[in-house]
Amino acid sequence: MQTPVDPTSTAAWAELTKLHGGFTPDLKGAFASDPERAARFTFDAADLHVDLSKNFLDDEVLAALVKLADEVNIPGLREAMFTGEHINVTEDRAVLHTALRLPMAEELTVDGQDVVADVHEVLDKIYAWAEQIRSGEWKGVTGKPITTVVNIGIGGSDLGPVMVYEALKPYKTGPDARFISNIDPNDCAEKVADLDPEQTLFIVASKTFTTLETLTNARMARDWLLGKLQESGAIDGSDEQAKAAIAKHFVAVSTALDKVEAFGIDPNNAFGFWNWVGGRYSVSSAVGTAVIVAIGKENWQDFLAGMHAMDLHFRETEAERNVPLLMGLLNVWYTNFFKAESHAVLPYAQYLHRFAAYLQQLTMESNGKSVRWDGTPVTTGTGEIFWGEPGTNGQHAFYQLIHQGTKLIPADFIAVANPAHATKDGEVDVHELFLSNFFAQTAALAFGKTADEVRAEGTAEHIVPARVFAGNKPTTSIMAPALTPAVVGQLIALYEHITFVQGIVWGIDSFDQWGVELGKQLAMKIAPAVQGDEEAKKQQDASTQALIDYYLAKREK
Ligand SMILES: O=P(O)(O)OC[C@H]1O[C@H](O)[C@H](O)[C@@H](O)[C@@H]1O
């Protein structure tokens, strides 16, 4: 892997610094002086129609950003990613989530392995198994079909599948899916409370199969299942019957099939993936099994095809029209030159209500780093804080701060032309009403409202300042014909590649997560103290000791 280029040492950075120095955001003026602006800065990527024109962008800035991409070698490193070079330096791994959606006819051999053949072998195994569940051919231990699958996983083994399941609810033709992630025992308790154990199947999803939360939840689920089945007399207390029940009610998804077996799940009931798939990039791997059960093979194939279409766009489209590249570079422009700290993602699609949560792991676990991939300190700010909620709910919660606060918050607005449920309220098409908000918000953020406009509405003079909107709040509008499986796939791949672009500019390894590993170790170290071990408690700082004391005094056991 090449030494990361210090972006601040490039000619493009110097140009951007100069451009920023002379840059007074004036979106109103920019549109007034250039009738072609909207058309010139709107690009199509697969089914996504992306309008960048309400950003702090002009031809010079665009040219300098594209030059920056070249100077930090995004084209070369993008190719290195797609061809399986070990660009995840600190873990010495290839980064090949794009291979998970390659059509069968493609060829890709990495580290001596035919990756495409491996991917499709697993996909075929999942499709065949999912079809058994969906058709009712697969029976639980008492002979009944499965009506609910419960995915047990956390982080990348949860956020992707739950987000896609929610996004594609209108495409659900199979069993329900639920998702247990938190080690808070209330999560598991609530999710299984109304389930019939005879018709429930658990999918234990964990890349490493060592994650404390997931293994604990899996054991709790196993105890619940066996306990309930014994209670009703469906099975006796013998090991043999417990084994038979687990074989029919538990499957696993992991890269560590040996650990799956040690847990007591038959490896024949496990779907594998590979260590070249990062957890937060794993939704298109076997980690999506719960979704495949719910929406079926054809819809999943459309989802993968959508991701692949975006992969191709990113790999092959010229820089000036390359949407993930431009969006990633714009994020760098805002983060490093305008000192924006956060980035809102605001889907005008209720089905995308978990999209921001999903993006938080994708972007922040990837790019929240302060050393570069060669171990040297970063030379710029990194890692935007991603957040968001669906519109219009967000409008009634936090948009006030975006419109009139003191912080610059670039925002991505997402909407589709056709809703899954076309509904009228009297004569009014409710989706049109919904979209009117989408259109109105980006316009208001860009162009604001002057004091004269406020006065013209008859506002009392002393209230005028409070009702003025400065405007010049940058937004990107992303539209698509409908929230199909392909479009959901494209949205995910779009943000994966945006994340990659930012990571390369900053010189960081966007595919490791050492910061999270520490938390895992610390919780294990402190557990004995929480269980009452005085010596272990004394190892803790005074604040932590006092908090543990409070807990020990208050707990009712
Ligand atoms: O899938 P698992 O191995 O159980 O890991 C689940 C999660 O664990 C940690 O939080 C990692 O930082 C995440 O990237 C990962 O998605």
TrEMBL record:
The broad enzyme category this protein falls into is isomerase
Q: Which Gene3D superfamilies match?
A: 1.10.1390.10, Glucose-6-phosphate isomerase like protein, domain 1
**Catalytic activity of the protein:** alpha-D-glucose 6-phosphate = beta-D-fructose 6-phosphate
Q: Which GO terms describe its molecular function?
A: carbohydrate derivative binding; glucose-6-phosphate isomerase activity; monosaccharide binding
Q: Which gene encodes it?
A: pgi
HAMAP family linked: G6P_isomerase
Q: What is its EC number?
A: 5.3.1.9
* Protein's UniProt name: Glucose-6-phosphate isomerase
Q: What does this protein do?
A: Catalyzes the reversible isomerization of glucose-6-phosphate to fructose-6-phosphate.
Look up keyword Translocase and say if it applies.
no
Which pathway is this protein engaged in?
Carbohydrate degradation; glycolysis; D-glyceraldehyde 3-phosphate and glycerone phosphate from D-glucose: step 2/4; Carbohydrate biosynthesis; gluconeogenesis
The yes or no answer to whether the keyword Isomerase is present is yes
Q: Report one GO cellular component.
A: cytosol
Identify its protein family.
Answer: Belongs to the GPI family.
Catalytic positions are 365 (proton donor), 396, 520
Its keywords, alphabetically, are:
Cytoplasm, Gluconeogenesis, Glycolysis, Isomerase
Q: CDD domains of this UniProt entry?
A: SIS_PGI_1, SIS_PGI_2
Q: What organism is this sequence from? A: Luteococcus japonicus LSP_Lj1
| BP GO annotations | gluconeogenesis; glucose 6-phosphate metabolic process; glycolytic process
